[in-house]
Amino acid sequence: MAKTIDETSFFTSLLDFAGLLALATALVYATGWIYAYHYFANFQLGLLSLDIPAEYHLMYGFMVFRDWWFLALPLLVVALLMPYLSKQAWWKRYLASVLSSFNRGITLLTLLLCLLGLVLVLGESTANRDYQQQRTDDFPNYPRARVWLKSGNNEDAEYKALSMQLPLGCYRMLLQNADKLYLFLAPAHQPPARLAVVAVALGDVAALRILPQYDSCEG
Fold first, then answer.
1. pLDDT, greater one: 83 or 135
2. How many CA atoms lie within 13 A of 78 on its CB side?
């Protein structure tokens, strides 16, 4: 009987841990999504058009919590202690006394809304701060690239002008997904608050060369 009780306790703890892990993953993902939404909005891009892989949102979320670790650490400690506290009689009595004067559903909903509000604030503020820092430093995280477009694909005058500009290496590469290449041109002085981005279909690209950090623009 003792063995059965121990096994039940073990699996209960395991389920508690799995639930906390799922909640933490969802929280990190949501934070990363909010970060990406506000960050790429500075380039006038929507997330649906970018088709960013899900794992990137997790990476963005970790970046946010890394920068705000002093707020995330207490939450992590509490989450790790929950399986232990849930088995303590004194904790159950304390929790029952706290919840006795409140509706359980309303209390949980309030906590979730507070957590969601924290995610929204941290994700947006971190995204805007990172963009402003990149803008001030002339976007060092985005390398310049020389792009040669295929000739004869389009007779449009703007396409021809772009095909002459891109090989100069003045444009920086923002992102590449399965079918598009996103490039932007940052003005030398006082770049605007939001930058315009050129989306080039990969099928129109004849060649691409990423330039070293020290290479300058020929334009």
1. 135
2. 7
